[in-house]
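Journal club side-thread
Mid-discussion, someone asked how the predicted structure for our own chain would compare to the paper's figures. Pasting it here so we can look after the session.
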Amino acid sequence: MIIKKILKYSIFSFLGIFIKQKYKFYCHDFRFLGHLINFMHIKSCNNKLNKIIFIPSQLLGKKNPYLSYKIFLHAYNSIYKKNIPFFENLIFYIYFRCGVGLKKNIRLYYNWEKDQIKRLSKIKKIFFEPNIKKKNNKKIENIINSKYILFSNRDSAFKKKIHPLEDFSYHDYRNEKLSTYEKAIKKYNKYSNSELFVRFGSIVDKKITNKKIFNYPQSHFRSEDNDLLLMKNCYFYAGTGSGPDMLALNYQKPIVYINWHHIPNLYCFRGNIIVIFKKIFNLSTNKFLTFSSLMDPNFRNSHSNIPVGLYNKSIQYKNAKLKIINNSSDEIYNAMIEMDLLLRKKLNFNIKNQNLFRKKFLEYTGKKIPNNLYVSEYFIKKNKKLFL
């Protein structure tokens, strides 16, 4: 252990002779689409001392067809105006790994701070737009030329496929049921038949039972280029914060956030968003936790030093005797209806209701909600006691 530490220190010190600048590094892993937020953050900083580095084996190894490479490689090129220099990346990567091992303050990442939100909110256009080759594919072409809604439900399939040797069951609290989405979409189809629904993602678990939904992830049309085309041209995107939403944020698409979990970490740097939250039921008191308590950084219990509203492992909820309640099909349906009405300028939100959330969010996080980011009106009315 001591020899390993000495070796790291020696390498770090030696490379430091040549790396004289006080760089901060974000080390990217292609397996996590949600990490696109770090590229957005670094672009908004416009600081040459912020460096993006890549895991060398991922750059050299065989490309995984289920991962997103194009958007990240384009993002790098957009920020630094050059392709990834492999040798430089390798040196920086070794320097970074040794520095982190020695607990040096060289790591850079997005962490929901107010100044980060402020910088991101100033970008009003598409963050990164890679050159997408439109393939001679009538199915996809017909979809992107129509009015369609993209949706995705989070399950464990992607993690199990991409990380077969790692146990990600601690994140199961984030999962959703496809059947709940299907029920909501069935109701929406009765409300309006003009929009096609397209399931989004690269690896999914359950099969679609509703024939009116195009099951894109389990079709032979699924590709990285088509992922980007479908997101760029959709009417709006509906789903939780699990990776695909980053593409929607990148393309500045309207978003219906479903089953949003960590309320203090809501992406509030842009609007055209309607959100509905997961609820937390206390099995000891037989009551739901209020949304205010889930935003309160001082609301903790004896089982963890982490605020209850930021628990990130299934076992934490189990130990605290808390049960996670996902959004119902009627909550999802109404949130999507509201987005359609909002986009057609046929809905004015009740500001008094919205302020029930906005004022508490500002009080507990210090961050302001944009004027065009809303909590679903139906969701507020149905769960009004939890907003008080």
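Post-session note: The chain has a mean pLDDT of 94.
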